[in-house]
Amino acid sequence: MTNSVTSAGDPRPGSIKLPLRLCDESMGVILGADGSDFLTVDIDRARDDVAAAEIARWDVTHHKPHYSAQAAAADHGNAN
Fold first, then answer.
1. Cα distances (Å, whole numbers) of residue 69 to 23, 28, 74
2. Is-above-0.90 flag for pTM?
């Protein structure tokens, strides 16, 4: 099953709820609004925690406009 990015409150199974946020407990983990895992940076732990956290922070910051646009399109029935 492929995860889709949607706005909070979307009832579809497997959908990631926006906004995305960094996990407070685990370095380098990005969560959906409901606390579900979206992305784990460096799952094999080849990088130190600080590097993984910086990559995750960059991803959330730089991709937020794309995720938001995709969710808006999904809310209007236009997303793939």
1. 23, 24, 9
2. no
- Strands 21-22 and 29-31 come out as antiparallel
What is the chain's alpha carbon radius of gyration, rounded to the nearest angstrom?
A: 13
Give, for all 80 residues of the chain, the pLDDT tens digit: 345 555 555 556 667 788 889 999 999 999 998 999 999 999 999 999 999 999 999 999 987 777 666 666 666 655 55
CB atoms within 10 A of CB 32: 21
41 touches 52 (CB < 8 A): yes
